[in-house]
Amino acid sequence: MQIGISFVFLLCLGFVQIGCSTHKAKRSVYGDRIPAGSALSCTQLLDSLMSTPMSKSEVNSLFNDFLNHPKLVFSANNTGCESKADLMAEIAHQKGHEVSKIWVRPMNSTDNFPVYLNEAKTESTVWNYHVAIQVKMKTSSGTETMIIDPSLFDEPVTMDTWSKRISSLSDEYDYDLEFKESSREAFFGPEDMVTRETRARALAKRDDILSNSGNLNDPVVRDGYLMKLRGQYVDDLMKKNPQDFETLEELLLNQKFNMWFKTPLQIEQIKQLLDQKPRFYGIKSSDIKSKIDFSSPDASFELKKYFWKKIGKAFERLSSKSEELLNGPFNTTTQPFRYQWESASFRGKWFSPAGDEEWVKYGLNPDTISD
User: Fold this and answer.
1) 238, pLDDT greater than 50
2) The whole model's pTM is what?
């Protein structure tokens, strides 16, 4: 659609009204000043009239640019979304693309909401809000809104795909969510009134958050980093090896194994244990040491990736044996076990690789516990 210059000029001066706000609008380098849900400003209307939807290749190229940008780190998917989205929006705008943001948050502003972080729904976290960027893409039938959210997806996705991932776990717990659009420079929420002062504060906060987004010494960042590694691994397993994926799903029903699989391991303690004992949950310590680089930040994940199946079997046997001893006939074997089970430290030791002496005492063979 083309519009005459004189008509655009009159439109900007506020002498012509087409569904936009009735006040005289001023164009600002800080974006529109109208919060989402309000009438369109003339600046917004002009942007929409002058914008050209991107091709699919342009959208994919933009996505890859974000992945390769030195300040954008998407290896941890549980923190910093507002800063990453803000820089992505700025980059897209500088490249000449029209871009806006899409926010999601609980209807009750005092709540948090749970969200699945991977397609297989094995990793989850809790947020009080999330934000990504959206662009328009040309299709054979017109245009489609595409969401760019590299923290959660490895490619641009449709609004439907993105919203289903975001809301699926909340739906299970009957959380009501709202999805709201905003200008590309709204930083503190979709209603953010962008001014020179608020934008300066936003940029300062953005730089501070982005500078820490790859800091694996930060426990929150490290947790997000490991969650994403696990999530990607399980998603690949689901697509490429459905049988193993089903086995893992069954093992994750075991609460103790689920906790072991999803909790960062104390690598230094494991290294000491491997040096002291010939086996780790029935696996030869030498086999583990030859497979895992314990100096790598991925060591915790790699141990799970390569040995989850055997260690899962060990947890199943430990759970089965403890239930047998707790629920079986009362005798000289079950009585001391039930007494010790009252202690949290004993329960922790029972499910740890250092509990082999207790396993022997109650009839389990540490050498074959994972066979």
Assistant:
1) yes
2) 0.82
